[in-house]
Automatic annotation (TrEMBL):
Residues 4-234 form the ABC transporter domain. Belongs to the ABC transporter superfamily. This is ABC transporter ATP-binding protein. The lineage of its organism: Bacteria, Pseudomonadati, Pseudomonadota, Alphaproteobacteria, Rhodobacterales. One of its GO terms (molecular function) is ATP binding. Keywords: ATP-binding, Nucleotide-binding, Transport. One of its GO terms (cellular component) is maltose transport complex. Coiled coil: none annotated.
Length: 238
């Protein structure tokens, strides 16, 4: 439903190069995790995929089609942020429905999709509440629900669990894994948490200073790291 190809992606902000010549293939239905130290370019790469940032060079292809010139709204991508970004004055139901209303989706379709997302994410009892009446974990589930109702080809998660405490992180991680199986969607997930990377990914991309150090399945990187950097990142507990 949403394969992704990156070809020779580079990005500079002024004289500062933050990404250099990134090539990547994410297969349809794949779960790819970007890991790497703070400032290595993970969010910038996600933003380029989403169309929120323009690459200085290179191509972004979704299902084999070049989307560089497509606006974010036309890329069939949904992004979930660490900060939730919910509207405080709107109920859970309206937070989830807003994007679809703006896209003039028929009312019956909106209701059906919100109901289905609420079921998947166990949000049914919370639909009438406002964000201030929710826990952090519940807010993040609403933010994920808002992505789900848009039925994107590609989900992008930027450190979605880093504001949650340890127990909630585990719960929400399990939910995301379940959602992935249920939706059969392609997901790209940024984290600096090794456990998240090892348990969620079928492919891990290790980034360092804007370059790819290694790409592989979790156990491949664990057993056969390409260099000391990868070994240190995947091997040592945080
Ligand atoms: P990560 O998500 O891996 O922590 P980022 O992609 O946010 O890293 O940032 C990579 C580098 O690019 C950092 O050095 C950051 O300061 C820089 N950067 C990100 N966005 C901008 C911007 N809009 N203008 C200038 N520099 C930026
Ligand atoms: Mg980041």
């Amino acid at each position: 439903m949403g394969s992704l190809t990156l070809r020779g992606i580079s990005k500079s902000f002024g004289a500062t190069e933050v990404l250099r010549d990134i090539d990547l293939e994410v297969h349809d239905g794949g779960f790819t995790v970007f890991v790497g130290p703070s400032g290595c370019g993970k969010s910038t790469l996600l933003r380029i995929v989403a169309g929120l940032e323009e690459p200085s060079a290179g191509d972004v292809l979704i299902e084999g089609e070049r989307v560089n010139d497509r606006a974010p709204a036309d890329r069939e991508i949904a992004m979930v942020f660490q900060s939730y970004a919910l509207y405080p004055h709107l109920t859970v139901r309206d937070n989830m429905a807003l994007g679809l209303r703006q896209a003039r989706t028929p009312k019956a379709t909106i209701e059906a999709r919100v109901a289905e997302a609420a079921r998947m994410l166990s949000l049914e009892p919370l639909l009438g509440r406002r964000p201030a009446e929710l826990s952090g974990g519940q807010r993040q589930r609403v933010a994920i629900g808002r992505a789900v109702v848009r039925t994107p080809k590609l989900f992008l998660f930027d450190e979605p669990l880093s504001n949650l405490d340890a127990a909630l992180r585990v719960n929400t991680r399990v939910e995301i894994a379940r959602l992935r199986r249920e939706l059969r969607a392609t997901m790209i997930y940024v984290t600096h948490d090794q456990t998240e990377a090892m348990t969620l990914a079928d492919q891990i991309v290790v980034l360092n200073a804007g370059r790819i150090e290694q790409i592989g399945a979790p156990m491949e990187l664990y057993r056969d790291p390409a260099n000391i950097f990868v070994a240190g990142f995947i091997g040592s507990p945080r």
